[in-house]
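We emphasize that the prediction below concerns an isolated chain of 273 residues; any contacts that depend on oligomerization or on bound cofactors are therefore not represented. The input was used exactly as deposited, without trimming of termini.
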Amino acid sequence: MIETAGYEGVTQIRMSRELDGKPVYWVAAYLVDGLLVDTGCSYTSNELASFLEGKDLRLAVNTHFHEDHVGGNHDIMTRYRVDVYAHPDSVPLIEKRLDLYPYQEITWGYPVPTEVKPVSDIVKADRYTFRVVETPGHSAGHICLAELSQGWCFTGDIFAREKPKFIRADENMGEIVRSMRKILALPTDRLVLFTAVGKIVEDGRTALSHCIDYLAGLAAKVKELERSGLTVDDMVRDVFGGEHPFAQFTNGQFATCHLVRSLLEMGSEGDNC
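Result of the prediction step, given as a token string:
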């Protein structure tokens, strides 16, 4: 299932596996000036490749190696002979078969391993030039692409919502906060965020600032609760009202307890706003 929308010359491509006529989980790629940012999951790979027929496609960049961002690589590389690029730390992970949880296999499927190239600091398209911003925290080798003259930033999964309630076990909230600060510091008058969850955030600086403040407040709260003797499970119950239902669906990979643990580990450079 694919849905598209336009924004200032950028085509948003929302994709989801369809079960019983309904989308399972939306992810988004973006086509702009011959550049495709991310390629969705394997279940929508053929649909994406068909949609791109006759479009101006000259290269693609994966923001990171996760299966819902690289699943269309093989089809577009085979069909259109375009090169795909990623951060050097992501390259070997995209080139091998990933180990997936059952929910990942059901929702996004296994991507075909593909040989991609290391991205440089700058990605040049026809009219626009995109700065590659290293933004670790969500995964190894995560990057954002910023077009400073337009005030666009394609954020991958480094920002999804202002008030996250759960994260993956391997995410690092201190690094995520530092990465968001990098985006905030970009030398551009405005900042529009093109997120991988399918939201286009027009006032990106306000959204990022709210998220950083929210996380800083949570970090201070859980650290105070830890000093008073509460456990992580206690904090999940007292601060969030219990574990998020997503934890059960994802076999515990996404969970509120992971968010609490990571907030407890945040250093001063991560929680100082």
